[in-house]
Design goal:
With about 350 residues, the protein is α/β, with parallel strands linked by helices. The longest helix has 15 residues. Helix 12 links the parallel strand 7 and strand 8. Helix content is about 40%, strand content about 15%. The protein folds into two domains: about 45 residues, no CATH class; about 230 residues, Alpha/Beta hydrolase fold, catalytic domain (Rossmann fold, 3-Layer(aba) Sandwich), CATH 3.40.50.1820. The chain has a nine-stranded mixed beta sheet with strand order 1-2-4-3-5-6-7-8-9, with helices on both faces.
Amino acid sequence: MKTVQWVNNPVNLRTILLLKILSNNINIKYVSLNTLFYLILILKILIPMDNSVRLSHTKVPEEYQFNFEGFNYYCTIQKSEFKKCNPIVVLGGAFQNMQSWSKHLEYYVQLADVVLVDLPGTGKSDILPHEYSIEFLASTLHHLLLKLKIDKIEMVCASYGTPIGIIFASTFREMVSKLILIGTMKAFPPHRRKQVEYSFETLSSNNMSTFSNDILEILMNRDRIDSIRRYAAVHKVLSKIVKNTNQDGKCKYVENSKRLLNYTPGENIFSFDAPTLIFTGEHDSFTRPEFCREIASTLKNATFTTIQESDHLCSNEQFAITNKLIAAFLLNNDLNAIEGINKVEIFSSN
């Protein structure tokens, strides 16, 4: 039997032994006490007992490519050992892709399976001309869920992703358990519309430094720098992302922005029943708190609050608080118990 030779071999074979034991290919009764000591030591190093987040996020996400009406798009699925709620689908904002939410994923995977999506026009998916509406993107998401055979979801939507989430919840009501909107509004205020339109000009001139300043002026509140947590760090990261936007990303920014500028919510778009959490940073100067609150007040079952010391990019500036708030809402826990948020308001048609 070869097992005796393994036991008496030097330490460099103990890793092989560990793999053999973990794969049930060796009987543990043949292992010496000395080797077992090292085996336990290795296990302690590889699997810390208090690292519950990492333990459930060890599998590589599954990536899928689909095509809807001629447009390729992608998603990744991170399987979870937990089923505390329905699968969580995440739609990000401008200058974001699936990878932008990888850090958040470690929190969400503690609750359920997580689906990160690059719909047409985002990430590495195909460019989507602005003539294709937000409704088309909602239909694309429906196509994705049918392909994945997912019947009901929890939706987390940020900024550009929020109108898609609203239309999806309104059109495919039976599929949405809960909806979370981070930084939303019904339409662009006139001065913001002009800023976005002007950014097209700076982008066409390929002046990426000026373009970056234009975008940061829109998304971040420079008047409250001293009141916003991690402002400098987030500003630096976003500035680098925007300045390094490639030609594909430039086209997507223009087409997606034009799509938003052309977007007008229908009369019955806010009539869905799904419990909805709407929040943003208390210093958000883009989708201002009153804009978010306005939408919450029109819904049948909505909760509204703001996150302290943050602006439109609250999910980056107040990372932990954002994820605690989302988890608490999905699990029906008391939001008032969360430190770092302001008054929680409930809107109900009942």
